[in-house]
């Protein structure tokens, strides 16, 4: 029996370094190829040696698909393709193809130039890797080879994020990547049609959360920013360059405009300016409202938000700063944080999820004193052994565009999968969601750990060619509207689409007729013709829904069964019934012979 | 399978395909050449036009002074311009299930088809086609509505009267079906029925037919369509180009193995080379500007204009035209320029890679930024204060009958310093200029039509090898003006099937097979036996289930197991239900074995008879 196998190399009961292997219909597909933000050693990348111990991956993989540009989904791509070795096709959407190399380069710079790591991929490798990328359009059916096809759906999460359907014959798998089921200020909601995949592989970052309405969260966010600015404090918002940053910028921009606020808003330069430009060019990937109005007013041209310069860190007075990276694990956001952390008037707002091991994660857990334990968060400016008192207010606001439990259930309802498989979440939370899914939808739900394989048996139907004449003939049997209660049986459809007559003819075979005959003796004190009528009436009352005829020569016919009566002049009351039927009516024929053996009821009127 | 042809215009087609009980309209082009019979609609009062003499028949019996005006020996209808619609009587438009749009020029009749006709289906188009098509429709409505005409002329359409009118009015066809422009409400309502599709997206129609748009290389989001079932394939080719301009290149390989290929939208200028025309355009433009004249370019607001601007972007500096203002006037100028920059997915490879940088894919962004190109919604407002001469003006409509171009014709027509350069191939430039005669302005005709020419199309057809080709009759003979050019027609084996307006063609293929699925349980129960080498046979008894045009064979349901409480006797009294028939008996009978079995049976028969006698 055919089966589909799913093995996460990363993101199995974990968040980070998403990398999932799928084997379907003899094809092997890698879904995402991410890095883990919480590690700086080998665990940073998925363990590709699972695929092969040595040599290149090309011959083991039919294609690689990247769902979106976040590094935990594409960060290991150049390592995989250039250092481990893979020359096959890599698919991603246009915005992902545009933005992904920039983030990779940025990541490389931080790792190699700042942390001084060697044995890492180079700029050239990123370029070579991107040459293997084939862009993917939404809803386009891409034929990877004769059998394997993939199709991308809108996923919301970030600009260019996609869910992918992978299909071989009638078997299919849908991988969601990260997605968001509620439209936000700049992106639309994820959508998929009722494609009924054999397995739906879904992220489950917020498996146990059901978030309050977005409006409340936004109001909360604005209130906190407003209060801090009013009392002269500084607000630091660590973000990823693309995604939440743009949404929050739109939010603050409109708020500043409405409230006529004067305090400056800064955006750390470099990536982010460019990022806004990407949003302008890929406006078709944003939400309905922005797309509709972009000619009059492009939402990504900000009036109140200016570029940040490192020297502004020590400026007096209130300000709001968006700085990268989002988890405070390195770079400018960490630098600013260090300067502002000691003042309780200031505030840091963490608008997204922080991976374990990052400073972001620590302060969110209420840690008030930070120390540098090992080289995990090394930034050259800081000597080993530094420590930091956290006095500023720490706020967490979930603006991450992940589906919450409600959203995941909603997607299941949309796609109607036969099996569910959870990745990209914490094991405990997954467990909870798994129970809920199995209860509500009565489908199997898997949650394999990294390196563990989940297998789903599929039961594909067999496509056959049927000759149109045969099909039409059989469909016409039921009249124009087939009676739903009475299924028609179709008989004699040969496997290669031809009708039986044709098949016999083509093969030079002849059809055999097999007939059964049988004599039944019966005591009946009537004339032969009266007995005929009595049999006819009797059968008519017993056999409902059968064609029963009384032929002019006296014979009674039930479907193809012939019944004849004869008697000898010596014993006129002893009738001999001759029954004859074809093999096709064997059931009915033997029933009739048994029935008639019991004789005719006396009460039969002779009409 | 039938094809109903509702339009006779080869590049503005409107055909309806009936295939497997679905009714599919392929494009709904609006033939706008009819507006050439009308007087231009000036934006500001034109003394010249209002003083034109009315027309009275030579013998004075027919007086249509109010409706018809004479200008330079030709007669024009003085009324709101009207368009020649696709045929609406040939079949009931409310029975159409879907409309497939191939490019934004071929959808301009959409509101006439979907509104007030009982149409309840949906329309499929790519996103750029929808957005730019909307712009062009809005522009058309705007052009018409901002200069409303009080009177509408109808008398001249009377058959008896039209017969005696001077040509070309006399020869105008289907005049009774001509209609004035739709309203913006109709446009919005019609476009709300559009469902967006992407290239190579497989769209299922009622489970019976699958339609797929393919890149056609002609304009932003332009597509050819594949209409197929499991066994039959129809390709619809409309407005395709193999030249490298801004759109994504044409997808040719997917057209292979078609049973029927419907071919429309070939170039209207088979003898003009687009590259050469582009060169002529630039040199004429530079010459006029250097001589102190103005250049007027009547054009559509989207399409070739992007290529013209890109060409000028490189040309301006070299030709030392850096200080010459370029104006683009249209109610949708800004939208058109903005929209062109956001469809990266639909652009050629070069332009796509610019977006990755990120830079705008079209260089007109830079022309606008450096103030070399300015755009305005109309001649009123800001434009009148910014206007400097000599200059280059791009504006519509290319028919010269409405839009801002009418104003510039009146303004610049009298000076031989000025030049009008025609780049759109849809209208004869002589006819377009007729109501402005006598004219001193220079006229240059550089029609740029990037669609397939006859040479390219015969190469393409050789490549994709359709079994049959259907095309407008115009393509089966050389153009009337060049009747000796046998290379300007389609010569194929078997010859193409020509159609004209109101043709109904029976397409030559028979459906013989249909796809059916055997459920795995049923498939497992089959026992094929090899009848001869390579041929195995198994008889199938199954229940046919047909749902949404998908057919499945299921195993015959087993009779319910007998409830144990019932006595066997009772069962016999129930007639057997109609169940799976016995297998088909065929093949050779092994005689020896058969006789042996018969022998045994005879014994048992005897036993039976003895039993009965008791």
UniProtKB/TrEMBL annotation, chain A:
Its main location: cytoplasm. Residues 245-363 form the Beta-Casp domain. Its cofactor is Zn(2+). Transmembrane segments: none annotated. It is found in: Cytoplasm; Nucleus. InterPro entries: Beta_Casp, INTS11-like_MBL-fold, IntS11_C, MBL, Metallo-B-lactamas, RibonucZ/Hydroxyglut_hydro, RMMBL. GO terms for cellular component: cytoplasm; nucleus. Residues 16-233 form the Metallo-beta-lactamase domain. Keywords: Cytoplasm, Hydrolase, Metal-binding, Nucleus, Zinc. SMART domains: Beta-Casp (SM01027), Lactamase_B (SM00849). GO terms for biological process: snRNA processing. It comes from the Eukaryota. Pfam families: Beta-Casp, IntS11_C, Lactamase_B_6, RMMBL. One of its GO terms (molecular function) is hydrolase activity. Belongs to the metallo-beta-lactamase superfamily. RNA-metabolizing metallo-beta-lactamase-like family. INTS11 subfamily. This is Integrator complex subunit 11. It comes from Esox lucius. The gene is INTS11.
Automatic annotation (TrEMBL), chain B:
Keywords: Cytoplasm, Nucleus. It is found in: Cytoplasm; Nucleus. Pfam families: Beta-Casp, Lactamase_B_6. SUPFAM superfamilies: Metallo-hydrolase/oxidoreductase. It comes from the Eukaryota. Residues 305-433 form the Beta-Casp domain. GO terms for cellular component: cytosol; INTAC complex; integrator complex. Residues 548-574 are annotated as: Disordered. One of its GO terms (biological process) is snRNA 3'-end processing. Belongs to the metallo-beta-lactamase superfamily. RNA-metabolizing metallo-beta-lactamase-like family. INTS9 subfamily. This is Integrator complex subunit 9. It comes from Esox lucius (Northern pike).
